[in-house]
UniProtKB/TrEMBL annotation:
The gene is vata3_2. This is V-type proton ATPase subunit a. Residues 112-139 form a coiled coil. One of its GO terms (biological process) is vacuolar acidification. Belongs to the V-ATPase 116 kDa subunit family. It holds the Pfam family V_ATPase_I. GO terms for cellular component: vacuolar proton-transporting V-type ATPase complex; vacuolar proton-transporting V-type ATPase, V0 domain. InterPro entries: V-ATPase_116kDa_su, V-type_ATPase_116kDa_su_euka. Its main location: membrane. The chain crosses the membrane at residues 390-414, 426-448, 503-521, 533-556, 599-618. Keywords: Coiled coil, Hydrogen ion transport, Ion transport, Membrane, Transmembrane, Transmembrane helix, Transport. It comes from Paramecium tetraurelia. It is a multi-pass membrane protein.
Amino acid sequence: MSLFRSEQMEFYNLVIPRESAWDVMNTLGYFDSVHIIDYDPNLPQINRPFSNYVKRCDDVMQKIEQIDSEMRNFKIEKRYCPDVIDLLKKRNGTHKQFEELEQDICKVADDLEHQQQTMNSLQEKKNTIRENLEVLRNAVAFQNEDSEEASLLGFQKMVGVILKEDEMRFKRIIFRITKGNIHVDIMDIQEHFIQQDRRIVQKCVFMLIYPNGDLTQKKIQRVIESFSCNKFDIPTSSDQHAQRITMLENQLSEADQLLHLTITQINKRLQDLAEVKHNCSWIEEMRILVTKERYLYMNLNMLNMTNSVFHGQIWLPQGQDQKIQQALRNLHGNDKQIPSGQIQECQTQLTPPTYYKLNQFTYPFQEIVNTYGIPRYKEINPGLSTIITFPFLVGVMFGDIGHGLLLFVCGLYLTTEDARKSIFSGIVPMRYMILLIGFFACYNGLIYNDFLSIGLNLFGSCYNLVDGEYELQEDCVYKFGIDPAWGSSANQLTFMNSFKMKLAVIIGVTHMTFGIILKGFNTLHFNNYLDFFCEFIPQFLLLLCSFGYMDFLLFLKWSTKFEDTKDAPSVITTMIDMVLRPFDVPEKPLFESGEQQRFIQLLLLTIITFCIPIMLITKPLIFSLRKKNHHQYQQIPSQVPEEDPNPEQLQHDMQKEQSQPHSKLSIQQHNEHDDIGELIVHQSIETIEFVLGSVSNTASYLRLWALSLAHSQLAEVFFSMTIASHIGEGGFFGTIGSVVQFPGFALATFGVLMCMDLMECFLHALRLQWVEFQSKFYKADGYLFKAYSFTNIKTNKEDD
């Protein structure tokens, strides 16, 4: 099972002649199984062989973004690519394809840019004509007795147009620079203007009357220029005034026609770019092809170029080498002029990458694990168990039949096609996780017998109500979950509190024990018998003999019938006495006799006492006796480039590259500590952390009890404060009251319980998954297998 442990990886040398580098990389891109190792991760991209091609691809992508921006401005719909691989196969070309794409895209972008500049100039011209017209049409309103008198007295006038939003600021600055020696008239223009950036703005006409003076005029002129205002002259005679208006109206009509024609041409051009050529619009097709070229050259830059060949190292999942070799042979067979690339398996000390075959169901659970850390190569993957344990832990805290059913229905909706097109498309990848959380919340709600804070009588009760008190029927056991009679008892909260607390401890110890067992499987898989005997067995026995024994006492106490509940011993008291008074006979034993319980507890305590020094000193002692250093490195020097070889040199270089690996990588392996001192410190920390962590981690699982209790109490409060009294009242008025109060109940349930409380339960389950469970066995020091594959190319459309 690939999800239990990572896929078996094989290390290969890759040798590609320079003449066929693009063709080989293009062929490998259709496989989802090649992990290319960067020969020098510290080398800047600008110093790599194809950095110029990558830069050109970036420039072309900017052109595509400009075209795409224009299409959005003109509200032109385009079709995204449903299948990237199918498109790439249809448009499969040669290494010269990018030059053709670059020419086509740059030509289209330049043409659109020229048309855009023409449209902007026409729009600016139209706005200027309109402003002049508005000034002339409003000139009559400005020509009053005061303005005529001001002209006779030698005052000057200045008329122009400013933005409405700048009106108050313009007045204030003009008043300050002229010290109030100015008269300002403002008149709004009713029709709006379209700016070059396509903003719709409102403008107004201003007229300034100020005393003669070159200094004042220069100050006003600078202010007008700072506001980017246009100022206009007003004809003195009425005939000139009318002629100017007629001329401007004709110019406005011509500018309107030219602007409309230009917009039509741009729109038609963009419509052509949105047409479907193969399986998507032309612009999306170009985007994918250019992205592919950039992706290809970025990965080709990870190979080391020496003389006439590219060489590097790759990882392949086991069994994929035959497919790769056959594809390379087919490439050479289709075109004899193309030299074939070659791969050759070799041994290495490098740590292989971690690779799992994921699908839409397992992806979100693996992401939870990867967020904490990438699994080490071949170590047990917590993602497999997380599929069940994580939703179950959330369901324990969120246990309610009604709320679980609502969440389950939401998960079902997210699996439909309509959800992908709705506002919930962002959580569609989590649909199966939500589905499982809803299922386990409903399951735990059945155990708690809790439906929106109401108990359900599904299987009848084992208690009979006699004279106002409940009496237990003889030899009656409730079939599943909590008997509904407890919902009416006075000590319901105390009973559920005790039950959920014990259940949380049992789940926690079981979860942690499972993690330690996985650690044992890991040590056996890696043949690390020292850790198996010195860590796994002592840790397993310590947890089992302490908190495992406590869980056993809980089950034993539940299965024992006490005539008087006061005679039932306290499990916590028994555990404390086991440590503080190990030689005393228990006053209230759970076993048949106190001596038998004392002997068993002494045996368990002795095992715990011996486990701690075994974990602490055994491993350093054996390490010091072996005196073996496991710290390994592999460092392989790079080759010094030579001059371009002749054809005979090509074959020689390829044979040479196959015989030895090339890499500047120096990767440290997962080995033991260098010296005995470091190991002693490390083992001391590990021992103290495990012993103390066993207590703290067990207590940490009590959050299952706390959040479950908080959830049920909140649900009860919302129900009792809204519709509970009206339902109990019954009748017409009770029905009306329930209908009126139901929206408040629904909003409180959705906002607080279904959203806030669910998120809180999710976060606490993450804590239990990462810290309490995974810390028992999970190293999380691996790195992901990053396949060189064209399936990594995404369109602008949001992918699932």
